Amino acid sequence: MSFSFDEKPLFQSPLNACDSHFHVFGPAEQYPYGTDLRYAPPHAPLREYLQLANHLGLTRFVFVQPSAYARDNQCMLDAMREVGVQQCRGIVDVHEDTDLQDLKALDALGVRGVRINVSPIHPYEDGLAAKLQKRVLTLHEKCQDLKWHLDFLLPGWLTHELMPMLKSLKIPFSMAHLGMNLAKDGVDAPGFKALLDLVNTGNRNAYVKFTGIYRMSKVDGYTDADPLAKALIAQSADRIIWGSDYPHLSFAEHSSVVLFNLLDRWCDNDDQKQLILSANPERLFGF
After folding, report:
1. What 3-state class would DSSP assign to 11?
2. pTM for this one?
3. HEC profile for the chain?
């Protein structure tokens, strides 16, 4: 379990507070893993996650397909059925050739987006950006029909190469884990400046996820991430969503409560917390 009941939230969650990014894992004999594992899949059943959510006062949930299951979304979909469409949404990983009728069936369960998932530590690969762009644009068209969005997890170099395409997208999309900008590089780093620009381009379709802060920060209390988070909130509080990233996968030593409490340090007021935890996910996921 990625928290202790002795750890207390520093503030009360607003009405309809949402965890916009977490994963669940079922028994391996029931839900087999894919072949390209980035981490040892943990024991992370829905019942334990819901204990965390209740402890934090979260009442809406967005399941995100983890890479360990590749494009077999069954574990996540079964958990979504258990929670019910009134309280949850889902982000699936599907092949770009998936039939629109099959996607509509997922929509009925509460799915509202497709994940574009490339390992953040993937080394430079010539031609990968062009290959991925074809997948993105194909899924973009289908998501546009369904009023879904795209959810990106990419290494920094790939985000840079895809930036012109990202700015041209006509549907909402989200960038996981602060767009994978390292805290030590600061707010003046080209990648972070590009993220700030992306969030305010055109119709402002881009959303940034405050998730996995431990991926970008390696100091006690994640204090070096403060300038990045505060800069995003100051400029674009209406385009930020928060997620626990439960169960933290290969980063399981981190506390979900501590990560939640960072919002108390980063936000200047309750209105900003209400946007990040409630209003923004309601808009993006269609609650």
Report:
1. coil
2. 0.94
3. CCCCCCCCCCCCCCCCCEEEEECCECCCCCCCCCCCCCCCCCCECHHHHHHHHHHHCCCEEEEECCHHHCCCCHHHHHHHHHHCCCCEEEEECCCCCCCHHHHHHHHHHCEEEEEEECCCCCCCCCCHHHHHHHHHHHHHHHHHHHCCEEEEECCHHHHHHHHHHHHHCCCCEEECHHHHCCHHHCCCCHHHHHHHHHHCCCCCCEEEEECCHHHHCCCHHHHHHHHHHHHHHHHHHHHEEECCCCCCHHHCCCCHHHHHHHHHHHCCCHHHHHHHHHHHHHHHHCC
**In this structure, which CATH number among 3.20.20.140, 3.40.190.10, 1.10.730.10, 3.40.228.10 belongs to the domain 18-285?**
3.20.20.140
Nearest CA to 153 among 145, 141, 162, 144?
A: 162
What residue ranges do the domains of the chain occupy? 18-285
DSSP annotation of 14 reads: P
Residue with tokens 């503030």: 11
**Per residue in 139-181, pLDDT tens?**
999 999 999 999 999 999 999 999 999 999 999 999 999 999 9
Residue 179 CB contacts under 8 Å (≥ 6 apart), including other chains: 156, 159, 191, 192, 195, 208
Kindly report, residue by residue over 56-107, the tens digit of the pLDDT. 999 999 999 999 999 999 999 999 999 999 999 999 999 999 999 999 999 9
